[in-house]
Amino acid sequence: MSSVLRTGSLRARTARGVLRPAARVLGTPVRVRTDAPRIALTFDDGPVRAVTPGILDVLRDFDARATFFVLMTRARPDPGLVRELGAAGHEVGLHGADHRSLRTFTPGEVRDRTRRARDELEQITGASVTWFRPPYGEQSPARWAAVRSLGLEPVLWSATTWDWKDVPQARRVEKAIDGCSAGAILLAHDNFADEVDGVSDGPRPEVDKTDLLTRVLSGLADRGTSATTVSELLGTGRFERRISFAG
């Protein structure tokens, strides 16, 4: 082996040796290390009457559970729907006061807005809120720390349904199932954030989300894998964290 390759390998091992302990301190959960044949199913951007009840029906049919990261712009007008999530055995986390990126705000503003949103959501659900998913998955170290200072744990993902992309439904199903090894956290959406949520992300994709969920859960069941909440999955192992900051 050449000295250049040996040096490169040494640097890579050194970098991994530095990053692994740092990730335990500064990292955001992306999956759970577990041998259990289970994944955490998560939904962002809702809830909305046009989609979420259909999602709940599919989850019931498969005896599956999920964590719903809700926006207060959607939860506030329909608190009854938010309560239906908990009544059906699902978990409610916070996605934000609206869907604007945390980078839009100073760390102090992130803390104040997130605290108010959490308190309002807890009043609706009557339960403590533990998990937070930053809009777009975007966070900086200071904004991550602001959220953590509130006792909230930011959670990202390791697999996705691609339900915001203009691709064939079969490709979405394939993408989701291929990414769902044991302990994965799967990203899905029961809404598409828009001007109501403070953002404009282009045209709403045409996605039959109940069909997509049915096909994904069916494919997972064929592999002997079930879907549950972030909290229940964490009960089978421990978080795998990744340092994920931008801006």
Task: Walk me through this protein's architecture.
Residues 37-223 form the NodB homology domain. InterPro entries: Glyco_hydro/deAcase_b/a-brl, NODB_dom, Polysacc_deacetylase_ArnD. It comes from Kocuria oceani. With 247 residues, the protein is an alpha/beta fold. It has a single domain, classed as TIM Barrel (Alpha-Beta Barrel), CATH 3.20.20.370. The chain is 42% helix and 17% strand. The strands form 3 sheets. Strands 2, 3, 4, 7, 8 and 9 form a 6-stranded parallel beta sheet that branches. It has a two-stranded antiparallel sheet with strand order 1-10. The chain has a two-stranded parallel sheet with strand order 5-6. α7 links the parallel β7 (159-160) and β8. The radius of gyration is 19 Å and the shape is globular.
Please write out the topology.
Blueprint: H1 3-26, E1 28-33, E2 38-44, H2 52-61, E3 67-71, H3 72-75, H4 79-87, E4 91-96, H5 107-125, E5 131-132, H6 141-148, E6 153-154, E7 159-160, H7 169-179, E8 185-189, H8 209-222, E9 226-228, H9 230-234, E10 238-242
Parallel strand pairs: 2-3, 2-8, 2-9, 3-4, 5-6, 7-8
Antiparallel strand pairs: 1-10
Helix pairs in contact: 2-8, 5-6, 7-8
